[in-house]
Sequence to fold (272 residues):
Amino acid sequence: MVLSVAAAGITGIIYLIPILFVLPDVSLLLAVANGQPIGLIFKTATGSAGGGFALLFLILGILFFAGVGALTAASRCTYAFARDGAIPGSRLWARVDKRFDIPLLGLALSTIVDCILGCIYFGSTSAFNAFTGVATICLSVSYGIPILVSVLRGRQAVKHSTFSLGKFGYFINICTIIWIALAIVLFCMPTAIPVTPVSMNYASVVFMGFALISVFWYIVRGRSHFKGPPVPADHYVEHGQVVGDAIGRVTTVGEHASNGSSEGKTESSSFK
Fold:
């Protein structure tokens, strides 16, 4: 994973540097009707429409394969949330097709939502930009909340984990939280000044809308039915004994002694 990010960064620089050298006048690029000037850059650089289309076709191929990967990942996330009862209609979206051995209905749902989001562009570019911008905000928040909770709890949950960052953990986590907070603010800012109804960034509005829907669903069903996903627990030593040799919620030996039952042990091993 780390090497793939490094490889993408290197190839991206190699790709961008030649484009920077052949950029035409910026005002010409801003005047492109569809707002996507890369085709015009290729045409200007090659001196022919055919050459520009050939280079553009390579990008379209990359987008196609990236879209397939993204749709596959989205369908698996839909299945995972449905399996844990975190979204409406969970039983339906969590079904695994016996013939293809994939969550077919979850894939269909992801495809339909993807197509709907794509159609928004034809109606309003501002709305489309809001949905694409909120994706980064939601992703950042999903990373930031667990890190913030871990820091507030003294990083006890990752104290004995396989990759705990050691003595640099607090510093790295705090820097991450600050960076995520800055990124959220930047992605909520308008793209141009003065701000008009068209240039306004509505990502914050969409984010709050999804947040309110999530809170509502949690109050209605989540707090009574959602138990969290089955996650592998790291092995660690507490009070001289190994705890966490299971999949699921980890309970300590002290908890067993305090309630005088084996309930915690049974629960921690229920996802084996």
Q: What stands out?
A: The CA atoms of residues 146 and 201 lie 27 Å apart. DSSP finds eleven helices and two strands in the chain.
